[in-house]
Amino acid sequence: MTTANPTANFADNVTARPGKVRNRVLWTLQIVLGLFFIIASGGPKLVMPNTLMESAPANLTIPLGLLIFIGVAEVAGGIGLLVPRLSALAASGLSVLTVLAAGTQAFIAGQPGMAIFPLVLAAIFAWIAYERRATIADLRNSLSR
Fold this sequence. Notes:
Shape: elongated
Order of helices and strands: HHHHHHH
Distance between the termini: 35 Å
Number of helices: 7
Largest sheet: none
């Protein structure tokens, strides 16, 4: 006679790994979005922040320090997406960052139509974080040793 162990089912659900096709789709998204955030989004904020500040709309003034911080966060998130052990944490952070970017577009810049792209990215990053959630448990276990 076997007995059911409800905690075993919970542990299996938490450490579930995506299937082969889903894993390939996730890695494709992670590589493309990681490179996008390193090269096209965060990189310019670090390489030419003054040019970006000068070309920003008048109603969207961001202090230089904040712009550089956002650039560092985007580049770190992009790199994290490419590192298997950090992919879920990076996706979680980028999801929060893109939700904040959508809020900035909608409420501070006064362009709610421009908030759609960051919200779509936030949903994609949330899905990546959910699918890669096992890496968080693996990371926690390796750090607690």
